[in-house]
From TrEMBL:
Native organism: Cohaesibacter celericrescens
Cellular compartment(s): Membrane
Residues of the full protein shown: 748 to 1035 of 1061
Protein name as catalogued: Diguanylate cyclase
Cellular component annotations (GO), alphabetically ordered: membrane
Taxonomic superkingdom: Bacteria
GO molecular function: ammonium channel activity
Domain spans labelled EAL: 24-274
Family named by the database record: Belongs to the ammonia transporter channel (TC 1.A.11.2) family.
Keywords: Ammonia transport, Membrane, Transmembrane, Transmembrane helix, Transport
Length: 288
C-alpha cells in the first residue's frame, strides 16, 4: 500500500516537473520572438533627490508586453532569458533604448540600467556598449550600470578591469541590492562603485525589526565615508522617507514617489501631495 502511494507521489512530481519544463520552453520560444516583434518595453521609475525631492534620475526596468498574457514581469522572464543566453541581446537592446531616451525624452536626466552577470562576462561587451554610446550620441555621464555582488568573485581581476574600462567610457557604476550578498564590505573597498543601492528588504524592515535603524544608519555612514552616493530602494511610506532624509540618504526610490511607468507617462516632478506629507511629518518630529 505504502509503495503504491510512493509511486503516485513520484508520478505527481514528475508530471509537475514536466509541466514546468514545458512552460519554460514555451516562454523561451515566445521570448525569442519578443525582441524581433517589438514586444519589449522599458518602464522608468524615478529616483528622487532625498533632500530637494527633485527628480532628475530614473531606473530603466524591462517589461514584456506578451500578446496573450499581457505584461509579464522581469522576475519571471529574466531567469529564462539568462538560462538560454538571450539576456545578452536583451540587455544590449535595453542599453540602446536607454541611450536613445537619454538624448530624447529624458535629455539631461540620469538613467540607470540593470546588467545581467552573463553580459558582464562577454568578451566584447565593453566595446559593444562603447559603439552604442557613439551611435546614439548619448552622454555617458547620464548613464549608470547597476551590477550585483553575484557578478564578481573574490579578487576578480578581470571584473575589476572591466569596471575600470566602463568608467573610462564615462559611465557610472552602482551596486544593486546591497546587503543581500555575501561579501558586501570587501566589494566596496575593492571595486570602483559610484553608487550603493540599499536593498528594499532593509527599508521594509524599518518599524518592524529592531536592528533596521542601526543597519540603515551604518550603510549610509559607510557610503558617505567612501564617497559613494546612497540610494534607498523600495521606499513605500512617508515614515521611511523621513527617516532616510534625516539620516543623510542621497536618493529615494520606491512606490511612494512613483511606480515604474512607460516613458511618456513618467512624471518629471515629485508628486506634490507626497512631498507635502513628507515635510509635514518631518516638521512634526522636530516639534514633538
Ligand atoms: P531591481 O534592479 O532591484 O529593481 C527594483 C525592483 O523593485 C523593480 O522590480 C521595481 O519595480 C521594484 N520596486 C520599486 N519600488 C518598489 C517599492 O516601493 N516596493 C516594492 N515592493 N517594489 C518596488 P521589477 O521591475 O519587477 O524588476 C525586478 C528585477 O528584474 C530588477 O530588480 C532587476 O534585477 C531585474 N531587471 C529589470 N529590468 C532588467 C533589465 O533590463 N535587465 C536585467 N538584466 N535585469 C532587469
Ligand atoms: Mg536595479
Ligand atoms: Mg535592487
Ligand atoms: Mg536586482
Amino acid at each position: 500500500h505504502s509503495k503504491n502511494t510512493g509511486r503516485n507521489a513520484s508520478n505527481l512530481f514528475r508530471d509537475g516537473l514536466n509541466a514546468l519544463i514545458e512552460k519554460r520552453r514555451a516562454l523561451q520560444a515566445d521570448l525569442e520572438k519578443a525582441l524581433e516583434q517589438d514586444e519589449l518595453e522599458l518602464y522608468y521609475q524615478p529616483r528622487t533627490n532625498a533632500q530637494t525631492l527633485d527628480i532628475r534620475s530614473y531606473e530603466a526596468l524591462l517589461r514584456w508586453n506578451h500578446p496573450e498574457r499581457g505584461i509579464v514581469s522581469p522576475v519571471e522572464f529574466i531567469p529564462v532569458a539568462e538560462a538560454c543566453g538571450l539576456i545578452i541581446d536583451i540587455d544590449t537592446w535595453v542599453f540602446r533604448e536607454a541611450c536613445k531616451a537619454a538624448t530624447n525624452q529624458l535629455k539631461g536626466a540620469h538613467i540607470s540600467v540593470n546588467l545581467s552577470p552573463l553580459q558582464f562576462q562577454q568578451k566584447d561587451f565593453v566595446e559593444k556598449f562603447e559603439t552604442i554610446l557613439r551611435e546614439t550620441g548619448a552622454d555617458p555621464s547620464q548613464l549608470e550600470l547597476e551590477l550585483t555582488e553575484g557578478m564578481l568573485v573574490e579578487d576578480d581581476i578581470r571584473g575589476l578591469s572591466i569596471m575600470k574600462m566602463l568608467k573610462t567610457l564615462g559611465l557610472s557604476l552602482a551596486l544593486d541590492d546591497f546587503g543581500t550578498g555575501y561579501s558586501s564590505l570587501s566589494y566596496l573597498s575593492k571595486y570602483p562603485f559610484d553608487t550603493i543601492k540599499i536593498d528594499r528588504s532593509f527599508v521594509a524592515a524599518l518599524g518592524h525589526e529592531d536592528n533596521a535603524v542601526a543597519i540603515l544608519k551604518a550603510i549610509i555612514g559607510l557610503g558617505a565615508g567612501l564617497g559613494m552616493k546612497i540610494v534607498a530602494e523600495g521606499v513605500e511610506t512617508v515614515e521611511e522617507a523621513v527617516f532616510l532624509r534625516l539620516n543623510g540618504c542621497d536618493q529615494l526610490q520606491g512606490y511612494l514617489i512613483g511606480k515604474p511607468l512607460p516613458i511618456d507617462l513618467v512624471i518629471c516632478d515629485a508628486p506634490q501631495d507626497k512631498v507635502a506629507a513628507i515635510l509635514a511629518l518631518e516638521a512634526q518630529k522636530f516639534t514633538d
